[in-house]
Amino acid sequence: MNEKAGADPRPRRRRWPWVLLVLVLLLCGGLWGAYEWATAKAVATLNSRLAERSLYLSYTSGSWVPWKGLGLENMVLYQDEARTKPLIALSNLDVELPWQEMAAHHEFISRWKLSDATLELHDPKGKVTLEHVSMEAVVRDGVIEYSRLDLKNGPRLFSFSGAIHLGSDKEKEESPKEFVMDLDPMRSILDALDFKEDAGVFHISGKVSFDARETPMTWSADLIGEGEHVIWQGVPMHKAVMKAAMSQSGFTGTCSIAFAKGGTDLDLDLKDWRDAPMSFSGKITDSEGRINQCKGTYRGKDDVVVVEEMQGKANMLEFLGNFPAMNAQLPKEVQVRAYPDMVMKNLVWKTKEGTWTMSSLHLRSPLELSVKVEGHSLPVDQVKGEVAYTGTAWKFSDISAKVLGGTLSLQGMHDGKVLRDATVSVQNVRMADLGPWLGENGSSFGKALASLSYKGDFAVEPEHLTGSGSIQIENSPTVHVPLLDETYALFAALIPGLKRESGNGEMSGQFTSKQGVLTFSSFKANGGSVTVTGSGTVDLVRRTVAATAQGRLRGVGGVVTAPISRLMEMEVSGPLDDIRVRPAGDGLVGNVVDGTVDVARGTIKGATKVTGSVVKEGVKIPFRALNLFRKKK
Questions:
Q1: Rg (CA), the chain
Q2: pTM, to two decimals
């Protein structure tokens, strides 16, 4: 009996741990079942509320934590029960169901939270993806009120608050309206806010509200956007501020931008997000405070800005220099000294392509500028006329100016190298002012004047020079008249005691040009008792001259007293940096009666042979003006 009594308690004591384990497992299983039941119940409640508005939910995983609420991952909200037409997709969503608050207010309430989520919005045209989305919102009686909605899209940072009206229980219909989302306004806004990634951030904030009770959904927004050191459509901006009142119908607003030089203040207006361009009007200001009034349009879908008209006294060259695509086409060698009152029309800028055109820029008052030519500054004053830009070339119409004491007029199309179909006229410029380009002391030219007329393709790179023209020099010291001083030197080798005259002379010539080869059909220089006529070619490509000329020396008192002139045939040849004038053939000089106009070569009577080194070596022409026409390295 005692042995049995002593043996029985031991097995019973061993069973207690197993009983406790079973109880724990049963309790955990019950809690797990309650957990699963709570999650399913919460999702079912949420689905029921959404289905009442023809919205349907799916997700890949869900969890329920009593003190935290419902957590969903990879959630998608559809507008059809078959779940084929997505509206909204979220990478994660936490929904808190405050049961005590719902009981107190007798309504269904939920609190929605997003943290660094990815949001996809869908409409019939596709989807818009937004990243790094954070939100805190309360949903009650058909209204989603969000106190904070932050998201980042590239260099654009958005911070919103507002509400989404879905319709209250009292407003529900037996057949609720289909929830239709239209993302065209969002696409237009994101396209317009095309800021560069690795620059400053543009921050947009304000209140945005939606009303899904209407079909299609209506919305409104009051926003302000600000950014410093941002780059929009490739354009650097020191500061940009934009304010706008928006809705599904369009928007009105203002835009203020500070550039590296100057700025702009514009009023903005958009009548329709789909078809109509945004119109703008306002002013631009240059770095010195001068103002131009402007108006135009921006079509975000095509990335095209059209400045329909701009007028005023602001420095447009300086302002256009703020836009890299335009700055690349502006003449870098031009410096504006006094900008005119002007009117510009139809500047079209294709922002994505980086190309632009301009129908016209008309100068209503004179322009004063300086142009860098061969390292020297050339003042150009009283510029008048009109210019246009085709996208590849500048068109000059009825341009007139004062330059080097004379006048300039031109028309033509300049593509950066060649002024095509040009008409150029330079009249009565002071040769003394050409000294820096001719390599001469300006005072040595005295009161000499030079003129040039030309039609055709004109360029300093000679292979592009094709056309015809004339050149004239007046009242110039003979030493600066081509061939005149050299002909004196040749006659002096023949006639002992012949002294060079110190007077002035003149020159004129008619020429045609073809790919840099100038053919002078006639050339005449006259000064004192010497006249030179001739013809020939100047090859600016090969840098050579080949011409023939006749020099005539009229009677000189004390040397030649009879009415007889001395006539000499000459050859002009050599490279441009060593042009030589020599007597032709054996160096014959003959006599002709004064008044004889033309004497054919080889028919000179009473010829005298010129001897000495001058026949062999000739006389050099120091004509540096042709050096202006050479191929750029």
A1: 45
A2: 0.70
